[in-house]
Specification:
By secondary structure, this protein is mainly α. It contains 9 helices and no strands. The chain has helices at 3-75, 96-107, 125-133, 137-140, 143-153, 155-165, 184-194, 196-206, 209-219. Helix 3 (125-133) runs parallel beside helix 7. The longest helix is centred in the first third of the chain and has 73 residues, at 3-75. The radius of gyration is 54 Å and the shape is elongated. Mean pLDDT is 74; it is low at 55-74.
């Protein structure tokens, strides 16, 4: 083997060793870079997961606190039930003495009522009681005077009512207008003019509408409450 060939082989071996070391260095750098990137990625993912865990824990604590507040609210004693609106009490029944006094006043107007033997109801106390329940509290004390004034002011109208619809009249012969001619009817007519809604309300609690409807039609009040 000549010297030139030996030099060439030695030079090739040297190049091979250099190339090998270069590959190892490159691989080492790649490993280092990969590991750094891996660990950095792991750290980033871990940080992200930690933030999620913290957020979840915070949310859970918030929900737990909300649940605890709700439970505490539900376990508190119920607040007292507000007082119910009192049911409106019916108007008190007129005292017997008061009703008799009003009836005595009404019976004094002989020209406005039928003779006792001609009246449909010998005792029309139930009609008078209903009418007097429609008398407002502030009117009760002087109601007899109020009734007297009413009858005197409407004398002509009351006389015509008795004549046209009272006992013995053609309409009455058909069994209608039975209240006309009763002394109690004077109080009913007075309330029909003064407190028609109150009268109708009290009447419907106990009595047949037809009696009041007939009387209302015959009297012809300014406010008709019948159908």
């Amino acid at each position: 083997m000549n010297s030139e060939q030996h030099d060439a082989d030695a030079y090739g071996q040297e190049l091979a060793r250099i190339s090998h070391h270069q590959h190892e260095a490159t691989d080492a750098r790649s490993v280092v870079l990969f590991e750094d990137g891996w660990f950095a990625g792991v750290r980033d993912v871990a940080s992200y997961l930690l933030r999620i865990a913290d957020t979840t824990a915070t949310a859970q604590r918030g929900r737990a606190a909300s649940s605890a507040m709700l439970l505490a609210h539900l376990q508190r004693p119920a607040s007292p039930t507000p007082a119910e609106t009192p049911v409106e009490e019916p108007a008190p029944a007129p005292a017997p003495l008061y009703a008799r006094r009003v009836l005595a006043v009404a019976q004094g107007f002989t020209w406005a009522v039928a003779a006792p033997g001609e009246r449909h109801w010998p005792d029309g106390g139930e009609f008078l009681d209903v009418a007097l329940r429609a008398v407002r509290p502030e009117e009760r004390e002087e109601y007899s005077e109020r009734l007297t004034t009413f009858v005197e002011q409407h004398r002509a109208r009351l006389e015509e009512l008795l004549r046209a619809y009272g006992p013995g009249s053609r309409p009455a012969s058909h069994g209608r207008y039975a209240l006309i001619g009763q002394p109690e009817t004077l109080a009913i007519l007075e309330r029909m003019e003064t407190n028609p809604f109150g009268l109708r309300s009290e009447w419907q609690k106990e009595l047949e509408d037809v009696f009041l409807d007939d009387l209302e039609f015959a009297w012809g009040p300014r406010i008709r409450l019948s159908r």
